[in-house]
Structures are given as structure tokens and as C-alpha cells.
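Example S7 (C-alpha cells).
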């Protein structure tokens, strides 16, 4: 039976899947610790969590807040120079040429790649950062939220385009302080204004990717809406294009791609003014351009001359991330979710095996393999459905004439295969200790009661949940068969409060904290899960900050969630990433002050200067005693 057609109620789910003890815990869980005076001083002798750090106040503020005993240093901000000899950042004279030499806007995914390549160095390396999108009304003086699209200048638009993409910055720690090496030969900006990106895999050169500027369909200028990403075992970085539909104007219904664009949600109502100045962002003039975005891109940060590559074998949709793991027999597997309500979880298994002895031999691995999509059943099983042209419904009668059509219209192919529509798939990451896979579903307020299933158990799911996917052989490092046809799965936690039917550890109320809208996740060296949150505009209703939380995954403290770090007002938490020794945790603070303007911002974090707007920034967190965090 398809998971889609079953409609158990939440009480049925609880009755069938949870023990009585878990039910009681789940019902009690979620009351805010902050609401219980003195709870921070509760008897810790019975706290089953292995995470013993003190929690900061669970309240929204204009400044960041970190767990007592830690320092949170601003490492690099939007506009900071990443080349030598530049003037200090001045937002009033800023322009596109300057932006291409400086740190971009709205940092999201972060990776730390040690220097030299292949080492486990923890005080020197390359910081790789995605620059997802822009808030022009916070970047430039004089713009109104409602009027900006009509009033922005060409120079402002080009600065915005240049602020998108990716950045690679050499960083070094001296004592407890990290700094950017401005004169590093590694420092590089990938800009949506100027950086050529190659296209490889099944869709490379396909007529549906050809444009006036690129009649071969093999080179795209720039990458857009890079949300999260991943690091390959050969030391390259994958960056994921997410909400690329928001950049295009014109009328998609009048193009030959009308059905494709409707399925991806491209309506031609752009959030940006770009189509006023650049024909390629107007589908009336360049109808194929949107087919050149929505991909996963591979970047080699160790080679500043490397041409980044759009790896089309991984499919085209709104990729949240792309995380890589190797099976016991060295097969390379990529997990990648499609972040929209009722979209799917995908997996790519490369045809060739990872070669640890020859770094360059792995660079084409992601061009050839099998893309699949997940179907969750109500008995706790997961089946991977191969998306192979010519098989099942993926045939010319349904408009699929090659594997290029399958990857370009991956959502429609997955619909036909019967994949399970999920509650907005955000990050998917694999525990390095157990090989279990954690899948974050951030929220989905559009799910009606008749469409709940066990993998998406709440209608009007405002707070999201996290699933645990268990491949055969999981339990120890390196033993999980991520390429298997079938997995098992269970619920790790349901976020929110008691009133929302949340489910955490039974002692969450006493020792932990509640969270809402999990987004990006990572693991520390002890295999514990660190969870970044993004409530978006719902933050004011929930009245808790976004930030970083952590919980055990195994043992007595499983799903007991502790609060570690709060972002400033109207920001979201992105990019949690540890150095190899676990002593520094890098986090990305994205869109501080969102929904306010340069002239009247809701916070001026991190500079708190009257002449400076809020600035998205990367923060380096360390313990005062320098020991591993957590
Ligand atoms: Fe860019 Fe799904 O967050
Ligand atoms: Ca974001
Ligand atoms: Ca995200
Ligand atoms: Ca999000």
C-alpha cells in the first residue's frame, strides 16, 4: 500500500508506535525550560544526556547568545575583503566590482577543509561558504521592501548578483582567535555575475539547456540560491542550488517548458529586479535559462583555477544539500532532499568506486550512476525507486526521451514512480559513527489531516520533525550499505511543544529545551547531532530564537535536546561545521534583520554601528578552556 493513501490519526500513530513510557514523555515534552524558573539549576545527577553544557536564555534578542563558558567570535562578515589592499567595507559606496572581491551575502552552508589537503589540521584551512540569496533593502540605503523592484539601479542589481554564489577563504587560528588570510592564493569568489560553470552528466549539451549566450548548452554563468552542500571524500565541495525559480521574470506559460516550469513552481513573479536589466532572467527572452539552474555543483577549493561543474546526474529540483558517504565496498552515495512542501528525498549511487589513492580519479564519479527517489511505507520500511530512462513510466509516451529529460524534470519523474511527498526535506546527513542517516523535515503547514502518514505524522506541521533512516549494516563506522534497495526508518523527534504533539526524550522538559523548524544538521566527534533551526516569519508567533541545538542519538540521552546558541533577531541559523578536532564550531548567521530595511533595521548585528546595516556573518565558537565543544 502506498504511504500516500493511508490516513492514521496522531493518536493511532502514538498507540501503535510508541511505548506507554514514550507516550507519557512525548506528551510532557516540549514545555519551555525558560518557563520554569530555576530549571537551569535542576539536579544534574539524573540528566541522561552526554551533553553537559549550560544553556543560554531561550529568548529572542538583537545580539547573538552562546552557551556560558564559550566565546563566539565574528570571523568574517558580508563585505569583508578577501583580497589584499582593499579599503574597509563601506555600504554607501559599494558596487559590483567591489563585491566580487569581498565576502558575499547571506552565508548558508559552511565547510572547513584543512590545509594541507588530506590532513586533519584544525587551526589552518579553507572556509567554504555558500551565499544563498540577497536582501537588497538591507544592503542598500533608501530601498523600500515594497518598492525595491521598481526603484533599484543596474549597479545595485549587479552587486546583488555578484553577492550570490560561493566563497573560499583561507583561515588560520592563533591562540583562540581565527582570522582571514587576505593575501591567500586560495581565496576565491564564485559569483553569479561572472564565474563560468561547466555542465556535465546526462543533461550536458541537451537542447533544453541551450541559450543565445551558450548555444552548446555546456557553460552557465554563475550558480544561484546555494543553500547547503556537502564535502566529498576526495576533498571537493558540493553546493546545492535551491529556490532558483525566484530569480526569473516573464511568462513561463508561454514557453515550450510550461509544464516543467509549473511543476518546479516557476511563476515568473520574481522576488528580484534582475530581469529588468538582464535578458537571461526573463523567460520571454531566454526560455531555457531556468533549466540551467537547480543542480548540484562540484567545486575544488584546493585549486583556485578549477572550473566548477554542474553535475546533472544528481537531478534538477530545489536541492537543500548534497551529502556524500562511501559504502563498505567503496561505492559513492549522495543524499539530497528537495525543499518544498510535499517534495521528495533522492539518492544517487555512483557507477564507479571511490579511489582513495588517486584524488583526481574521483572527479568524474558523480557523472555516471543511478538516481533514485524514496518511498516510505507505514511499516517502517523505505524503498528506493530507480529513476532510469526507459524503465517503468519514464518513457517517451510520458515525455521522457532520454535520461536528460528524467534529470531535468526529476520531480515529474518521481511523481510517476510513486515517491512519498514529505514535509519539506531540508538537510540529510549520515552519522560517521553509526552510518544511520538523519533526514530533517522542517515544517509543512499545508498537510491536511487526510494526508498524514507515519513518516509525516502531523497535519498542519508547524514545527517539523527528524527521521532516522537505517541502511542495512548500520551500527558501526563504515559498515552501512547506503546503496541497498531498502532501508528501515523511525522518528527521532517531533519538534514543537506539548500542544503541538511534540515528541522528545521524556526528560526534555526538565533538562532540555524545545525547538522548531529544524534545518541543517551536523555531527560532533562523539556522534551527537547538532541541529540548526529556521522558523522564518513564524518566529514571532513561536517566541523563541533560531539557533543551534544538540542531542544524543544513541544511549539513555537519545533525543534530549539542549540549546547551545541563539542567532540575533530575524536571522536564521545555517552551516554548523566542526574542525576535525571538534574544538571550533563554525556557524553562519543568515539574514539578520530580515523584513526590515537599511534605514531602519531591526538589529545592527554584528557591528552595532549607527552607520552600518546588519551583516550576515560567520561565527567561530570555542570553549574558554579550548577543549572539544559538547
Ligand atoms: Fe535554503 Fe531549504 O533552506
Ligand atoms: Ca535560508
Ligand atoms: Ca536550509
Ligand atoms: Ca529553512
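Recovered sequence:
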Amino acid at each position: 500500500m502506498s504511504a500516500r493513501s493511508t490516513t492514521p490519526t496522531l493518536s493511532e500513530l502514538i498507540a501503535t508506535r510508541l511505548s506507554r513510557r514514550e507516550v507519557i514523555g512525548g506528551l510532557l515534552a516540549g514545555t519551555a525550560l525558560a518557563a520554569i524558573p530555576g530549571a537551569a539549576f535542576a539536579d544534574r545527577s539524573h540528566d541522561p544526556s552526554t551533553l553537559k553544557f549550560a544553556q543560554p536564555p531561550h529568548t529572542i534578542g538583537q545580539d547573538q547568545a552562546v552557551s556560558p563558558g564559550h566565546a563566539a567570535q565574528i570571523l568574517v562578515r558580508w563585505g569583508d575583503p578577501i583580497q589584499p589592499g582593499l579599503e574597509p567595507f563601506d555600504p554607501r559606496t559599494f558596487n559590483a566590482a567591489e563585491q566580487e572581491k569581498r565576502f558575499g551575502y547571506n552565508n548558508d552552508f559552511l565547510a572547513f577543509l584543512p590545509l594541507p589537503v588530506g590532513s586533519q589540521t584544525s587551526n589552518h584551512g579553507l572556509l567554504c561558504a555558500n551565499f544563498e540569496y540577497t536582501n537588497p533593502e538591507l544592503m542598500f540605503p533608501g530601498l523600500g521592501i515594497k518598492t525595491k523592484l521598481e526603484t533599484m539601479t543596474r549597479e545595485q542589481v549587479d552587486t546583488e548578483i555578484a553577492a550570490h554564489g560561493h566563497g573560499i577563504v583561507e583561515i588560520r587560528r592563533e591562540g583562540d582567535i581565527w582570522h582571514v588570510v587576505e593575501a591567500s592564493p586560495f581565496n576565491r569568489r564564485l559569483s553569479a555575475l561572472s564565474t563560468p560553470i561547466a555542465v556535465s552528466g546526462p543533461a550536458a549539451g541537451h537542447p533544453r539547456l541551450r541559450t543565445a549566450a551558450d548555444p552548446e548548452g555546456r557553460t552557465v554563468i554563475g550558480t544561484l540560491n546555494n543553500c547547503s552542500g556537502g564535502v566529498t571524500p576526495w576533498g571537493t565541495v558540493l553546493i546545492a542550488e535551491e529556490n532558483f525559480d525566484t530569480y526569473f521574470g516573464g511568462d513561463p506559460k508561454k514557453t515550450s517548458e510550461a509544464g516543467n516550469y509549473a511543476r518546479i513552481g516557476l511563476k515568473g513573479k520574481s522576488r528580484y529586479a534582475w530581469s529588468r536589466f538582464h535578458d537571461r532572467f526573463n523567460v520571454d527572452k531566454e526560455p531555457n535559462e531556468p533549466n540551467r539552474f537547480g543542480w548540484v555543483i562540484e567545486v575544488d577549493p584546493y585549486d583556485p583555477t578549477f572550473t566548477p561543474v554542474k553535475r546533472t546526474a544528481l537531478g534538477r529540483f530545489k536541492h537543500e544539500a548534497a551529502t556524500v558517504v562511501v559504502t563498505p565496498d567503496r561505492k559513492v552515495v549522495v543524499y539530497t532532499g528537495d525543499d518544498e512542501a510535499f517534495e521528495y528525498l533522492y539518492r544517487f549511487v555512483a557507477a564507479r568506486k571511490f579511489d582513495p589513492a588517486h584524488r583526481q580519479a574521483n572527479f568524474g564519479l558523480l557523472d555516471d550512476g543511478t538516481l533514485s527517489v524514496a518511498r516510505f511505507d507505514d511499516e517502517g520500511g523505505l524503498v528506493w525507486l530507480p529513476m532510469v530512462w526507459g524503465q517503468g513510466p519514464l518513457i517517451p509516451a510520458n515525455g521522457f526521451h532520454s535520461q536528460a529529460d528524467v534529470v531535468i524534470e526529476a520531480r515529474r519523474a518521481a511523481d510517476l514512480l510513486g515517491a512519498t511527498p514529505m514535509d519539506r526535506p531540508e538537510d540529510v546527513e549520515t552519522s560517521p559513527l553509526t552510518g544511520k542517516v538523519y533526514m530533517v523535515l522542517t515544517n509543512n503547514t499545508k498537510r491536511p489531516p487526510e494526508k498524514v502518514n507515519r513518516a509525516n505524522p502531523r497535519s498542519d506541521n508547524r514545527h517539523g520533525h527528524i527521521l532516522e533512516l537505517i541502511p542495512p549494516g548500520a551500527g558501526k563506522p563504515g559498515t552501512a550499505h547506503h546503496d541497498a534497495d531498502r532501508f528501515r526508518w523511525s522518528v527521532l523527534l517531533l519538534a514543537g511543544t506539548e500542544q503541538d504533539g511534540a515528541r522528545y526524550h521524556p526528560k526534555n522538559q526538565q533538562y532540555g529545551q524545545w525547538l522548531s523548524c529544524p534545518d541543517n544538521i551536523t555531527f560532533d566527534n562523539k556522534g551527537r547531532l547538532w541541529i540548526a533551526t529556521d522558523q522564518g516569519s513564524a518566529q514571532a508567533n513561536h517566541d523563541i530564537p533560531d539557533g543551534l541545538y544538540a542531542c544524543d542519538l544513541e544511549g539513555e540521552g537519545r533525543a534530549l535536546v539542549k540549546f547551545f546558541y541563539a542567532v540575533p533577531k530575524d536571522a536564521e541559523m545555517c552551516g554548523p561545521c566542526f574542525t576535525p578536532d571538534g574544538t571550533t564550531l563554525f556557524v553562519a548567521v543568515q539574514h539578520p534583520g530580515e523584513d526590515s530595511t537599511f534605514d531602519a533595521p531591526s538589529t545592527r548585528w554584528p557591528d552595532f554601528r549607527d552607520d552600518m546595516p546588519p551583516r550576515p556573518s560567520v561565527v567561530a565558537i570555542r570553549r574558554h578552556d579550548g577543549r572539544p565543544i559538547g
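Notes on this example. Residues 1-42 have pLDDT under 50 and may be disordered.
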